[in-house]
Specification:
Helix content is 9%, strand content 44%. It has 247 residues and is mainly beta. The N and C termini lie far apart (58 Å).
């Protein structure tokens, strides 16, 4: 209930009830006023004008949820030690080359046995040449790869315009960028590129819409049909986007 008073008209009051004030995607979807008692036409007009102005302020301040951008994610803290909450649980011997399929940063793509690990960061405090690899930005465990030779310089750089390393959808689903050859929605050239895997048969298509505060991306689900390997699932809002950090 909103009670409005107009002193210019003898203090007559106009009571207005808001029956429904619902939000959808952070904006006011419906606001239906009901007049319970009005005394004088001028009172009603002025009261309603005040009410509409107040309602507009609420609408402007409500704003859509802003997509969180987590930047400069690496296994290390600024002083070069392992970041709090991250610990190395495995150590392997392998080799590395500059660059990454996951990040634009100055990181490394490494191998041990028959495995490829990407991205990895040089451990500048290690006694012997080594890297520490973080498979997903939210991981708390990391892999150390010991090297037999010094690492060549990696020349990448941070680029927030690039596709994020990983994404969390508004539903809470977390998706990681795919590496290597990418599939397309149509299964052949010319279709949207499948860029992220979210598990549970859910994938995200390359091309984030960043025009609004809440970023969004197209989703797709795989099908058993060779002719149409994916079915489009529409646009989905992004809650968090993770970007890797430089070495």
């Amino acid at each position: 209930m909103v009670l409005l008073e107009s002193p210019a008209d003898g203090g007559h009051r106009t009571a207005i009830r808001i029956r429904s004030l619902r939000r959808h995607s952070g904006t006011l979807a419906q606001a239906t006023p009901y007049l319970l008692s009005v005394r004088g036409a001028r009172t009603y007009r002025r009261s309603l004008a005040v009410f509409v102005a107040a309602l507009s302020l609420v609408a402007c301040g409500s704003g859509a949820a802003v997509t969180e951008r987590v930047r400069d994610v690496t296994p290390f803290a600024k002083d070069g030690s392992l970041r709090a909450g991250v610990r190395v649980t495995e150590t392997k011997h392998g080799t590395c080359e500059p660059g990454s399929d996951a990040l634009p940063n100055d990181v490394y793509r490494c191998n041990f046995a028959n495995y490829v690990v990407d991205p990895c960061w040089r451990d500048r405090h290690a006694v012997r040449p080594s890297v520490v690899c973080l498979i997903r930005p939210w991981d708390t465990t990391a892999l150390r790869i010991l090297l037999s030779a010094r690492l060549p310089q990696s020349t990448g750089q941070a680029d927030l315009r690039a596709e994020p390393w990983a994404i969390r959808l508004r539903t809470g689903k977390r998706c990681i960028v795919l590496q290597g050859a990418h599939d397309t929605v149509t299964g052949k050239g010319g279709g949207g590129v499948i860029d992220y895997s979210c598990g549970s048969n859910l994938f995200l298509i390359r091309g984030i819409d960043r025009r609004q505060k809440t970023w969004r991306i197209r989703a797709a689900r795989s099908t058993p049909h060779a002719v149409a390997p994916y079915s489009l699932a529409g646009w989905v809002p992004i809650e968090t986007a993770w970007f890797g950090g430089n070495n």
